[in-house]
Write a structure and sequence with these properties.
Blueprint lengths: L14 H24 L5 H18 L4 H15 L1
């Protein structure tokens, strides 16, 4: 698994974008918690797969805002790469 890094570039971020990122982090933590409770041999690959299933369902049902899903997809790439 790749170590996450932070960018040195200073980019203005809107409140809506920050809110979406925060919601995405909360969703990812919920997904990790569920997998950890159900799967004793948890791996980053399994998290990536499970998170993909969750994202597909969120998109299909509209259960999360599009900005939040986009932020979750970006976070998923960074965390499970």
């Amino acid at each position: 698994m790749k170590t996450p890094h932070t960018s040195n570039e200073s980019q203005p971020t809107s409140f809506e974008a920050l809110s979406a990122k925060l919601e995405a982090m909360e969703l990812l933590l919920q997904q990790i918690t569920l997998v950890l409770e159900c799967e004793p041999r948890f791996t980053a690959e399994k998290l990536h797969h499970w998170s993909g299933i969750c994202i597909d369902r969120m998109l299909a049902t509209g259960s999360a805002a599009p900005q939040t899903v986009a932020a979750l997809q970006e976070l998923r790439k960074r965390v499970t790469a």
